[in-house]
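Incident log, structure service

09:12 report received: a user says their structure output differs between two submissions of the same chain.
09:20 pulled the input from the user's history:
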Amino acid sequence: MIILDRYIALNYLKGMLPVMLLLLALFSLLALADELEQVGRGTFRQVDAFLVVLYTVPRRIVDLMPVTALLGGLMGLGAMANHQELMAARAAGLSKARMARPILKATVMVALVVMLMQSLLVPASERIAAELRSRSLESVSVDMGGRLKFWTRSGENFVHVSDVLFNRLLVGVEIYNTGEQGKLKTLIQAERATIVGEDTWLLENVRRTQLSGMSATEDHFDRMSWSHLISQEQADVLILPLEALAPHELLLYIRHLKKNDLDTHHFRVIFWKQISIAISIVAMGLLSLPLLVGSTRAVSASQRIVLGGIIGIVFYLLQQMTGHLAGLFYLVPSGTILAPVVVLLALSVIAQFWRGMGKFKMTFRELARKTPSSA
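09:34 re-ran on a clean worker, output below:
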């Protein structure tokens, strides 16, 4: 029995590989088309565009894994069904629930790998991609020797950032304000800077030094609002997209926002969307088996893949819609986002024990045979 479990799990994983490669190639080409538009800006070259697409592959894999779990299962297990191996296993006394055990183990293993990628690989690779994108900005200097050193100019202000926490929070911010003659007028030093709106930043633990002739005055503020600290393109270099943050970084950042009485709803939506990916992988993988068990003469492999693709697309759109609804109408993120995932998982589990499909198929076939004769 252990040998059979390994054989089913191995075929399932083998089916996922070509599906993932196909989807990854398609979406990478679309991403490459966007990156090539930046070639020629600053020192950004074609090689950099290819490298950016390469370093964003881990995030793309995470996003595509739920659909791959379903289509890959249909491919791998479909090959077994075409060779009557699944039917032979049923004839030997294995129930659908028993046959689903190795698939469950395989999908849990894949889900764990995805969670590790979300926590470790995706943030690191997205950070490198952001460094490469910074070459298209002529006014930015980024040095990643140990700690981040960021310099930029915005009008009469020179901005320096020492480091970034949670890939979202600027640390050690210094703003040098110069006059028309280039002389330093004001120095603002902030321990941290958090983006709270479009081009609006909240500076924390601020020290402002104003120079006037040979004298200097110093003021301290717990908080200070600052507009146009850096441009949107420069922010993209320092701050990773929310979807690229690790779940634990999101939790730490949400805790920081709560301490400062800032809105955390959008960040909680992204967090629960990340959590739902792992559950979706298990649900999609388990759903592939009920679609295949039974006679394969009436339904070809291509029809099964099309059906699985439709289910995957509908589920993906539903998941995206619930995420947008949760953010737009301020619904409870955990319940709104996890609801379709949990329902799909429950249906996948119920399908493993449902024995009424055969009777339904027989009834449908009898009606189909009677229809021409009655005409």
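09:41 both user submissions now match this output. Likely a transient worker issue. Closing.
09:42 reviewer note: The longest strand covers residues 184-197. The two ends are 51 Å apart (CA to CA).
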